[in-house]
Specification:
alpha/beta; QueA-like; Thrombin, subunit H; 9-stranded mixed β-sheet; 20% helix; 30% strand; QueA_dom1; QueA_dom2; isomerase; S-adenosylmethionine:tRNA ribosyltransferase-isomerase activity; queuosine biosynthesis
Length: 334
């Protein structure tokens, strides 16, 4: 398949620039792969489409304020977007500014500077955070790296809403957006319906959103991202499968984590790239947002539900004025 087979035109006004006040009031498109039916609902009613004993698997990663603004010794402005945490003080980063070179030290604040250690490729560098407590310094001076298509600066609301209510493990530079729809009230409602939940960790990096630059989708490579699938989650998945219930991945990051080492606990890097033709081994159903055209995320969803079904659903979503992308609405694919 060619990349152009996964394109669509989106009216720009359908890009959700801000989140809804009530997370669970986002619209939910329900796709059934067996009969190719499509229903329209809201996330609050998600339990009605699941069965008692089904398992929702969430990503408990936490977004950190990974965008830094600083100055060179000459006074020139520099923007640094931390993309992959190697250690608390050691990161890969996208660095923009004039004459960025190895050995440059960028001043952020009195107790935080960034040392440019090594040029990796294009605007990507290995950098060192010079601070006694790098993570604390990021929360003090960093900005939440909201997506560029929002076409605005970070606001206070993003500190709350561009984060899941169960975020726990710091390390992501983007939110696992399918989980943004889950409020404490909705999680409690799912408990009341007897729907189980489990967690994995996948630290979302810039690689998740890296544009595909090849026409033949098979030639694309995704960057490695750190992930953990704990033993208790694997055991629960096996139990659910034995009972004939569904494993529902909440978001594409969860899909990739569960499919990296099927039915096995795992801690390490994944570069699993899922595109049409892939055979899913663990995931029975999926919750996901509406993705950008020509993106690896759209390819993953198309691999699960079929390209034609997904693209026709996207056209219906456009006609029905669904809200798109990170702060937008979502779909449940059964």
């Amino acid at each position: 398949m060619r990349l152009e087979d996964f394109d669509f035109e989106l009216p720009p006004e359908l890009i959700a620039k801000y989140p809804l006040k009530e997370r669970h009031m986002a619209r939910l498109m329900v796709l059934n792969r067996k009969d190719k039916s499509i229903k329209h609902d809201i996330f609050w009613n998600l339990p009605l489409y699941l069965e008692e004993g089904d398992l929702l698997v969430f990503n408990n990663t936490k977004v950190i304020p990974a965008r830094l603004y600083g100055k060179k010794p000459t006074g020139g402005r520099v923007e640094i977007l931390l993309t992959d945490m190697l250690k608390e003080h050691l990161w890969y980063a996208l660095v923009s500014g004039k004459n960025i070179r190895e050995g440059l030290c960028v001043y952020i604040a009195q107790d935080l500077s960034v040392n440019i250690l090594k040029h990796i490729s294009e605007g990507k560098f290995l950098v060192e955070l010079l601070s006694q407590d790098p993570i604390k310094a990021l929360y003090t001076y960093g900005h939440i790296p909201i997506p560029p298509y929002l076409e605005r600066e970070e606001e206070h609301i993003d500190r709350v809403y561009y984060q899941t209510v169960f975020a726990q493990k710091e390390g992501s530079v983007a939110a696992p957006t399918a989980s943004l729809h889950f409020s404490e009230e909705l999680l409690n409602r799912l408990d009341e319906y007897g729907i189980r939940k489990a967690f994995i960790t996948l630290h979302v990096s810039y690689g998740t959103f890296k544009p595909i630059k090849v026409s033949d989708i098979r030639e694309h490579k995704v960057d490695e991202e750190y992930m953990e699938v704990p033993e208790e989650t694997v055991e629960l998945i096996k139990k659910v499968k034995q009972e004939g219930k569904k494993v529902v991945a909440v978001g594409t990051t969860v899909v990739r984590a569960l499919e990296t080492k099927p039915f096995s606990p795992f801690s390490g890097k994944t570069d699993l790239y899922i595109y049409p033709g892939y055979t899913f081994k663990v995931v029975d159903a999926m919750i996901t947002n509406f993705h950008l055209p020509r993106s690896s995320l759209l390819l993953l969803v198309s691999a699960f539900a079929g390209r034609e079904f997904i693209l026709s659903a996207y056209q219906i979503a456009i006609k029905e004025r669904y809200r798109f992308y990170s702060y937008g609405d979502g779909m449940l694919i059964l």
